[in-house]
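Hey, resending since the last one bounced:
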Amino acid sequence: MLRTVRRAVEADELRVAVPERVVVQSPPWPGCGDYATNVALRLAGGARGDGLAPRDVAEVLRRRLLREPGIRGVDIAGPGFLNITLSGDSHARLVELIRERGADYGRNQGLDGHRLRITHDGRARAVVVGEAVCRLALASGARVDDPADSDAVMGDRGMGDVAVDSTAVVDSTAVVYSAVVDGAAVASATSASAATNASATSASATSASAATNASATSASAATSGSADPHRLRVHRVHVHVRDVAAPLHELLPLLGEDALRWALLRPAPHDVPDLDPARLLAQRESNPLFRVRYAHSRTRALLRNGRDLGIEPLAGDYEHPAETGLAQALADYPRIVEAAARDRGPDRVARYLEAVADAYFRCHDACPALPCGEQKPLAVHRSRLALADAAGTVLANGLHLLGISAPAHL
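The structure tokens again:
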């Protein structure tokens, strides 16, 4: 989408400033294509003397989008929203991309060039959230001063390895934050423009995050003192959550690491975590963690059964609404990871995984991936197995970002 805008500007079809980011997301209700964007409304507001109405801007972009491979249709809705419908082979290319990239699918460069420092109060939930935020930042291209120390934050040695030295340097332009991980400082920064873009494009950005982004500081105070504040501007990032009274060493034996991480990461920062073992450890679909992990294990079981039948997964045409709905959910994963990294919101990933699991089960029920009875294996079974494989990959990647295991058998 951003490339389409840029080309329209280069061709002098639009006289606007090319934005740094364009929001493209799933439409809020069915029947509005596969993706929707309000970019035409944004561009019309920033037009330099053309006087184009949003629908006129949308028409310019619509004509260009229709020339792009993989796009079947583009409709203009309301004052200038663009609803984009992909062709069936676009979903097939996505499925093959996910299967090809595997554990790397979802990694992005949204925070490329940023350096991460985190502060928190050292209590149970703040520690776990801090670990997840670090994983998200690394998955989004952020840098740390010492990757070896960041591995400790990422939980390879369990929870509770983070000791915090909360320091801040504040002036009229920025707030700098820092943390100490196993005795070594880990550094990071988030650009003001990126944070502003994130708050503008992320519907789930909290008012607290917006308030944090409103404060500004001098990056030179955090680094060597010689950095140009116009080139490096950072925002204070403090893991502030509604914590629990019990320490980690008391909670771990009750819940286990996976259920405890989910319990502490799934709620929004201001919500109280539910630590009831009866609910968190229940092996039924009403338990969100079980549902997500069960969906992953079902995809692995389908692949095993498919191999036993000699069916090789291969992406094909996806036309059923349950198939396209699942494919659209999988396509959102890199955007969710980047947005969660920018907003320091691992709860967004948890909620997204629930949505993917639900979409997978709908597809599983409506579009069987294996032959039934005396039915012979068909091309449709190969394509559905490939889609199931892609869904399992995304579910596993998301769980691992939260520090939660994704077993093949459950």
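The chain has 15 helices and nine strands.

Sorry for the duplicate.
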